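User: quick one, fold this
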Amino acid sequence: MAMNMRNIIIAISLLILSSYSSACALHLVKAEGPEGATWNTIKSQIAMQNGVIEPIQKLGENASHLRSMWWIQLLSRHLDNENLPSSNIYITDVGLWATLDSSTRKVTFDAPVNDSDSYMLITTIVINAILSGTLSFEEAIDLGLIQAFPPSI
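Assistant:
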C-alpha cells in the first residue's frame, strides 16, 4: 500500500512539474527585439505544436545564428521570383536582423533598423517550412507567422 501511494505522489509531482514547464510559451522566446517579436515567436511555437509546421533541431546560440544566416540567404534566393522590394527582416527566435537588397540580391546582417523603417518578423521554424516547401510565403503571412511592421505595409 505504501508503494502505491509513493507512486501516486511521484506521478502527481511529475504531472505538476511538466505542466509548469510547458505552461508558458514566453520561456521559449527572447525578451528583447522590436515590436511584435515575442508574439511572432509564440505564434510559430503554437503552429509547430498544432502540426502546421515541423520542428527543427535545437542548436546552441552561435550555431542557431549561423543556421539562421544561411537560411535567410537561401530564403532570399527562394523569394527572388516574388519580386519583393528590399526588406528588413528580424528573425525573432534568434534575435537577428537581416536586410534583403532586391536590387543587388545581397543579404546583410545589420544592427537594428530605425524606428521609422518597416520590417518583417519571421522565425527560423517558418523559414525552414518555406524552404522545405511545406508552407508558402503567402500561407505564412495569412497564418500570421510572417508579420509586417508597421502593420499597414
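User: anything notable?
Assistant: Helices lie at 2-23, 37-49, 61-78, 124-132, 137-142.
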